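User
Please review the sequence:
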Amino acid sequence: MSTAPNTFDGSCLCGAVRYEVSGTPDLFFLCHCSRCRKGTGSAHASNMFIPDGKLVWLSGEDMVTTFAVEGAQHARAFCSRCGSPVPIVRPGGRVKLPAGSLDTNAGMRPLAHIWTGSRADWDDHLEDVTAFGERPG
């Protein structure tokens, strides 16, 4: 766990949205819930959480769209052009920072996999799958 305040810079895939988040992350989870899987199109979401974090949009704030699941705490923000997840300020001021959107180092490793009871059926022992440094073929 990090103890000193940090500054994180990041952007979306198309580069339209750029941001800076400052604060000290207290959590970093790989979430396997069905909502995070659907929101990322992947095995899990990789989110850092920064209590009382400060989010500054450097460009593209008008391109950020927010979606909240009605009746649930799940919400996500993303670039309306390319769909990349970007930070969102949650109730109480906690910033949810998608680690994959960072242009700087995260400075910490994930603390845990969560909602593994909802894990996709193909998401098991992936460390055993053949790995390539680049696209094969």
